[in-house]
């Protein structure tokens, strides 16, 4: 949801030119380090949303908007045809552990957090591709509240306005969200940050207003891209790290069934084999990393540095256009359709697996994360029962690759803030 992705790409290109090693993964040794839940841990289990709907063009467009990139003409036209009315609010309460609810289009994983004293419960979207905790609030223009629960700092005895501080996030469609900033108690599961910056919206982008199920967003990127001015604020995870058993959180998202986020430990039962860690490039605030290459189906591994971002707030897997074209050349009847803004194919066609490399094992070859072909069959197009939209699409105009939920659901992923690295492991897949 940030306007600086081109800075990310520029930094990548400049650093790679000056120091080619800086952004390529080192020969990271796999690790079998295991953690067990302790006092400084929380576990967030997803709840199935029976009403969720997928829409390929809309979900691709959300990624462009998020990174403040104007829509290509083809995609803009497709979005205009696929617009849907607002959806009703879904209730969600947390009792003990926090609950996470998959949202419409498989984009949002809504988690109940508590803000203030006494606690006010809101459902927010956990997003590793941004760095702001912002919520609908009592200050939000009334016409922009469409069923969301709002945070009211005047009802919290621990809320204190951060005088002179404001925030604003601009999106690729020209809209923006912004408002004031308060410091207040924020609790996720059983862990609390006593004075977390909570960005209270005065105005909200129409894309968020239309989603009555989401009360805001919790960014788990890095504070360097936090949008509060004049002084950037730390993210919830950055503030929480000192209270965690380990300065990590993990994403164990699933395809077609509930998944889990854990904070403070690595669940050794959640993956198979080893976790392969590679260093991250957080210069531009993202969980940026580089894959050494890929393979399609039973084909040979192809060396090609894929510079990208691990982003739980993006649904699809966005890759360089040559890789995307290589994949769909192996899908019978697949083609790029301008009126859909992406690749489509027959819904009943067999799809090859897609695998991407992570670091290097002791033997020198990269560890591989395999995305089953069935995951790539993302959604029927426009109510069609015969034509489907691909979950792998081009990152043209965005610049960096985006390892969204399509990739994350195929792996167990460790976001290690203490050691500034990201770990990927295979797991049993449904």
TrEMBL record:
Region annotation (Disordered) maps to 79-106
Annotated Peptidase A1 domain ranges read 109-425
Here the segments flagged for biased composition (Basic residues) are 80-89
Q: Which InterPro entries match?
A: Aspartic_peptidase_A1 (IPR001461), Aspartic_peptidase_AS (IPR001969), Aspergillopepsin-like_cat_dom (IPR034163), PEPTIDASE_A1 (IPR033121), Peptidase_aspartic_dom_sf (IPR021109)
Active site: which residues? 127, 311
| Signal peptide annotation | 1-18
Q: What Pfam families does the record point to?
A: Asp (PF00026)
Entry keywords, A to Z: Aspartyl protease, Disulfide bond, Hydrolase, Protease, Signal
Mention one GO biological process in which this protein takes part, according to its record: proteolysis
The source's superkingdom equals Eukaryota
Cystine pairs annotated here are: 347-388
GO MF terms listed in the record are:
aspartic-type endopeptidase activity
Family that this chain belongs to: Belongs to the peptidase A1 family.
Which protein are we looking at?
A: Aspartic peptidase domain-containing protein
Specify the species.
Echria macrotheca
